[in-house]
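Study this pair:
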Amino acid sequence: MKQITMIIGVAISSSLLFSCGASKELKAENERLNSVVTANESTIKSLTKDAEDCNKLKAVLSEKIDNINKGLAERGTSMQKIQEKAQNAVTKLEEAGATVTYKDGLVYINYENDFFFSPNSSVIAAKGREALNTIAEVMRDNPGVTATIVGNTDSVVAKGTNDNWSLSTERANAVVRILHNTYNINPARLTAAGRAEYNPKASNTSEEGRKKNRRIEIIINPELSRIWELAK
């Protein structure tokens, strides 16, 4: 009987000790899980804020893109109107050996060089001066555009000049001077450039090809500064 009582006492003591140890382990595990939950809640809050910020940024960027697209559409429409105006005068231009094309949002007006200049000269002839009035009208009617005037030559170095770079650039300069001095186009809207023989339209191996390469190209460009303002 005494032995039974001792066994029961040991069993109860062991049970109490085990129960106490298990309780400590459960408490420690509970504290660990609570810590994980707290950390996850903090992470969720941070991710939620990031998501909100991203949505706000997305909305701002979407609005800017819409504004830019509207601006580009407006410019595209105006540039097509410019092309139409140039095409309305295309009979005169074609009689002068000019062509009018519309590409990538730009209007290209090409004059054969003989219409403007005598061989080896950068002095514009009277009929060339008159033809530039059409370009000036386009620019006056569309204050939101600029013009780049590009001189081009064939591969034969012109007599009395240093090289074709000089001649092509000076011919472009001559066109700019007429547009400004004669037709009062703001020079800030005009750019002169020379490409010499390095932008040919045809082969320089024949006189016909060389004639096509000797030309003045006037590129009407939309003014994009307002569109860049919309992107800020």
Observations:
- Residues 115 and 128 are 6 Å apart (CA to CA).
- The beta strands are 98-103, 106-112, 145-152, 190-194, 215-222.
- The chain is about 60% helix and 15% strand.
